[in-house]
């Protein structure tokens, strides 16, 4: 069953058969028709303004990381909130991250399974698998013209923007709500 709105469902049987017939009538072989309908069935509509930061093929589907809707905090200059989009195949999770764009105290605050992670980052510094996502998100929010670029190659850009590239990275973990 496909859900279109609360309480309203469409049977996937008849539209699926009609779609398959239309594809076959258009000259596609049955294997091509199956691949097309599978791609359509697992397609996820992305939100307007989504900036894709990273895409990696995985056995369970394409892993996509992106951000959208960054908004400055009206009370705290340099603090931004943005939606973080994580997609694996057709499964999507969205969470709100907070990013501080300060040259002296840049950071990303995110939720990890109910725990609050506060990560001080060093724009233009060493990029590792442990801090790569933090830097991708930070650059996308604080300097969107560099969104999606490999943060390991942005050292000179960071210096030109006034970041020392010598800040100490750290992480604080605060317990959160039970889920």
Structural account:
Helix content is 24%, strand content 36%. With 179 residues, it is an alpha+beta fold. The protein has a seven-stranded antiparallel sheet with strand order 3-4-5-6-7-8-9, covered by helices on one side. Strands 1-2 form a two-stranded antiparallel sheet. Helix 1 packs across helix 2. The N terminus is likely disordered.
Task: Please render the helix and strand layout as text.
Layout: E1 2-5, E2 8-10, H1 13-25, H2 30-42, E3 51-58, E4 61-72, E5 79-88, E6 91-100, E7 107-112, E8 115-120, H3 132-142, H4 155-160, E9 170-174
Antiparallel strand pairs: 1-2, 3-4, 4-5, 5-6, 6-7, 7-8, 8-9
Helix pairs in contact: 1-2
Average pLDDT confidence is 80
Order of helices and strands: EEHHEEEEEEHHE
Biggest sheet, open or closed, and with what strands and sense? 7 strands, antiparallel
Q: Please give the number of β-strands.
A: 9
User: Within the largest sheet, what's the order of strands?
Assistant: 3-4-5-6-7-8-9
Oligomer: single chain
Strand coverage percent? 35-45%
Helical residue percent? Answer: 10-25%
Question: TL;DR?
Answer:
The protein is an alpha+beta fold. 24% of the residues lie in helices and 36% in strands. It has four helices and nine strands.
Please name the defining characteristics of this protein:
179 residues; disordered N terminus; alpha+beta; 24% helix; seven-stranded antiparallel beta sheet; two-stranded antiparallel ribbon
């Amino acid at each position: 069953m496909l859900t279109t709105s609360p309480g309203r469902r469409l049977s996937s049987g008849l539209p699926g058969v009609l779609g398959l017939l239309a594809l076959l009538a258009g000259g596609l072989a049955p294997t091509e028709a199956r691949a097309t309908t599978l791609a359509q069935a697992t397609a996820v509509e992305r939100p307007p303004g989504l900036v894709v930061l990273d895409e990696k093929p995985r056995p369970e589907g394409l892993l996509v990381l992106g951000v959208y809707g960054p908004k400055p905090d009206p009370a705290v200059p340099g603090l931004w909130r943005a939606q973080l989009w994580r997609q694996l195949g057709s499964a999507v999770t969205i969470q709100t991250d907070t990013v501080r764009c300060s040259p002296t105290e840049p950071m990303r605050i995110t939720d990890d399974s109910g725990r609050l992670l506060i990560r001080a980052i060093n724009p233009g510094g060493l990029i590792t698998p442990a801090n790569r996502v933090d830097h991708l998100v930070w650059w996308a929010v604080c300097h969107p013209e560099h969104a999606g670029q490999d943060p390991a190659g942005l050292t000179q850009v960071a210096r030109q923007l006034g970041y020392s590239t010598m800040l100490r990275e750290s992480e604080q973990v605060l317990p959160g709500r039970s889920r």
